[in-house]
Amino acid sequence: MSDNHTKQAWSLVNEYFHSNQIDPSKLVDHELVRAYLKACQKSTPKGVSISRQGNRLYLRFKTATKATTANNGCNESFTRDGCINALAKAIAVSDKLKTLDSESEFWEWYESEIKGTVSLENDIITIGDAIEIVKNNYINGYDKCGRDRSDKRLRTNTLANYHLTYGKHFEKLNPKLQLTGENIISELNRNWGQLIVSISGSQTLCSKGFKNAYTGVLKLLRDTRLDGELTKVTKHFGVTRIVRKTEEQAIDLETFLDFRARVLGLNGYKLTKAQLNNIESRKSWFKAISFNLLYGFRCSEFKAIRNLDEPVQLGKRLVKALHDPTNDENIVIGRVMAFG
């Protein structure tokens, strides 16, 4: 497969998006990958198709000994880049089949050029080597809108996006380590383990920071075609799910009263002339802040309080105003409010 095949693939996909009025820049995550897969499947040359099983992509084509329904591995995953690469390989296969001398020669070429798997027994790849491969692929590749990142006009933006997506994570890795699944797991735990909430068999609960680092670091294994090592890592962590933590905030009475004194100019705190001229407004706002702090009201809920300053008669019962110092029940009576 040549660079020309890759450029052809991008051209066909961009043409598909344009003709179908699809803006890939508005698509994210799995939705984006599905759109690319469909575009690539619709753009394959006659006689070759792309199929998907789980997270792997396959090529289908007919030879003297294989039917068109047979899935032929092409060493590509179900990612945006994987879909583009699969289409480029489909084009290469179509070209090769047209010049076929013998089927054995074709399959020898297919194993080398299309499947092209790397064996760690024969090729020792370090994390540093893989980082250079990923960076080179990124800078000389295409963005999700199909723009060529190697364009000099996009250079500054390309390098900034590379650092944000991959570079800042790669900087924390030990470049001298051999690129193996075990070492990647160790490096992820060493650098981002504190962002993991829990790991339980089939899934990892984590923060967004770990998820981003995990996705970025896996690119090292994807671009070097180390599928076996990639599987070790994905099996270890399983499905990664982001857990958002909500921190509860508290304020003690002493701090609250000091805050009140500062706002209203009490206990020796002095207000400016402008603040003194607006003292009634400051009192009103502080009252609103105080009630919202105690009750946890939203703005609309606070505005709907009927017994804020005046008591409310409900049948035979008189509900005291919340602002009444003799009110020891603190019952809130509300009403429906319309905002617009």
Note the topology.
Elements: H1 3-19, H2 29-42, E1 48-53, E2 56-61, E3 72-77, H3 80-98, H4 103-115, H5 127-139, H6 155-170, H7 181-192, E4 196-200, E5 203-206, H8 208-223, H9 227-237, E6 239-242, H10 253-264, H11 273-277, H12 279-295, H13 299-303, E7 312-314, E8 317-319
Parallel strand pairs: 5-6
Antiparallel strand pairs: 1-2, 2-3, 4-5, 7-8
Helix pairs in contact: 1-2, 1-3, 2-3, 5-6, 5-8, 6-8, 7-8, 7-9
**Count of discrete structural domains:** 3
**Topology as H/E string?**
HHEEEHHHHHEEHHEHHHHEE
**Average residue-wise pLDDT:** 88
What amount of the residues lies in strands?
A: 5-15%
Amount of helix: 40-55%
Termini gap: 61 Å
Counting DSSP H or I runs of 4 or more residues, the number of helices is: 13
Produce a short descriptive summary:
This protein is mainly alpha-helical.
